[in-house]
Amino acid sequence: MNDSSAGKAFELPIRVYIEDTDAGGIVFHAKYLHYMERARTEWVRSQGVGLRAGLEHNISYVVQKMNLHFRAPAKLDDQLLVTAELKEASRVWMGFRQRVFGAEDRRLLCEADVRVACIALDTGKPRRLPENMQQILKNFI
Amino acid sequence: MNDSSAGKAFELPIRVYIEDTDAGGIVFHAKYLHYMERARTEWVRSQGVGLRAGLEHNISYVVQKMNLHFRAPAKLDDQLLVTAELKEASRVWMGFRQRVFGAEDRRLLCEADVRVACIALDTGKPRRLPENMQQILKNFI
Amino acid sequence: MNDSSAGKAFELPIRVYIEDTDAGGIVFHAKYLHYMERARTEWVRSQGVGLRAGLEHNISYVVQKMNLHFRAPAKLDDQLLVTAELKEASRVWMGFRQRVFGAEDRRLLCEADVRVACIALDTGKPRRLPENMQQILKNFI
Amino acid sequence: MNDSSAGKAFELPIRVYIEDTDAGGIVFHAKYLHYMERARTEWVRSQGVGLRAGLEHNISYVVQKMNLHFRAPAKLDDQLLVTAELKEASRVWMGFRQRVFGAEDRRLLCEADVRVACIALDTGKPRRLPENMQQILKNFI
């Protein structure tokens, strides 16, 4: 158990730009998937794992399942906090709980359960999580 | 019951462009939400309802919930078929079943249940589906 | 000179979806680059060349220069026509003139000169346009 | 002349995520426009001006012209620096010089001249830059 990381959700600050909004005046719903993917990426980076290095070793990650609840809209200029919390894992996938909050009032805007599978980049077939990722998982689950 | 439309899922052909792909060589997962939103939009348009006309009358639609299963990746140049099938509705929301197929082999790539709520554009608060949309729903549910 | 294609700009119909718009109520400016890229892609496809097949042979295309003039905004639900017209070429690049029109009134919304270079996918270095592309260019310039 | 800000280009660090890349393994060209728009937004924010507050007062900004040179590709996980430097202005528009660098080696990846016009949100017609923006311009030009 890694005391410094266990039990806390990783949190990434993200600003809402005009590119993220739509003619309804709010953040386009698909953009929350971008935000969540950035948070997962920064979490693995904070653990010493880079996605590009993975691709160079034929390792890629794909979202397999997502269960999303959009609770309240984010708007232009909003400062958000996006979490990534590892909840479960198998030999080939990781299960995250992710949430998007308004940074000021900690209001919950969106939440999701996300399953990310590891695949071989060339074949697209599932493969075992690489050694460095397995070591990280041990500190979180 | 409208014989011409009932029982069939609306289907929109969509081409995969380089903008839709990522460094993993496949369509970025959030893009399927764009594809599904386009299919819902074209379905309502095929029923005579335009989104922009709605905005001009303070009517907007937002995705509230999505349950997604990404089954197989789409790739650059692929021709897809994206369905939108109304499954249920309340006074303020519609529930769709949506699927993304490869056009050639009818292989299922992605499927989702999507709940879309009607809101007032200015306040963001839920409101009753407008009269024209309610009439359409009667033909499908 | 190929009479059937010379002297006419290739034209692709594109619909504006909510994903394309921003909180200013108009199409986000970067989206026109997507539209233009789609038009170039469909033009080469209409000439028998697929981008994915190119990637599989280590051939990729990148935009090197763009000179854009945004004249009037497109809006949600608008039907557009996006042109791609080959104007010049060297051994390693192609120069296009592209325009975005409103489909109904043929109003010019955006125009651009675009230089697209051919590169080797693995090294990123410029390379000669492949044989099939060179043959196509002969019909247009 | 404001000594603290004059003569220096505003600089925003931006990370490249998988969403920004395409099947060619590099950042999709249109994404640089997003990066540049973020840098302009953070520059005005650093001067005390928020875009959302503008929209609420019927003030919007649109890109009118862009002259882009894509020099070298950014890739997944790259850390970038994106500049925004005000070069000229009229009563209704501002002209920026913008550049995208690799953060580590300060290699120039993309550069652009960008003209941004002020418009009335409701009519889309050009309007005088608001008072707070005019005050800012005095410190930079």
Please describe what this structure looks like.
The structure is a homotetramer of 141-residue chains. With 141 residues, the first copy, chain A, is α+β, with helices and mostly antiparallel strands. Chain A has a single domain, classed as Roll (Thiol Ester Dehydrase, Chain A). The first copy, chain A, is built from three helices and five strands. Chain A has a five-stranded antiparallel sheet. The first copy, chain A, starts with 9 loop residues before the first strand and ends with a helix. The N terminus of chain A is likely disordered. Strand 2 of chain A pairs antiparallel with strand 2 of chain B.
Would you list the SSEs of chain A in sequence order as H and E?
EHHEEEEH
Mean of residue pLDDT values of chain A: 94
Residue share in helix of chain A? 10-25%
What is the fold named in CATH at topology level of chain A?
Thiol Ester Dehydrase, Chain A
The number of domains of chain A is 1
CATH architecture of chain A: Roll
- Count, helices of chain A: 3
Tertiary shape of chain A: elongated
Question: Key terms for this structure?
Answer:
3 helices, 141 residues, Thiol Ester Dehydrase, Chain A, five-stranded antiparallel β-sheet, homotetramer
Write a brief caption for the model:
Chain A is α+β, with helices and mostly antiparallel strands. Chain A has 3 helices and 5 strands, in the order βααββββα. Chain A has a 5-stranded antiparallel beta sheet with strand order 1-3-4-5-2.
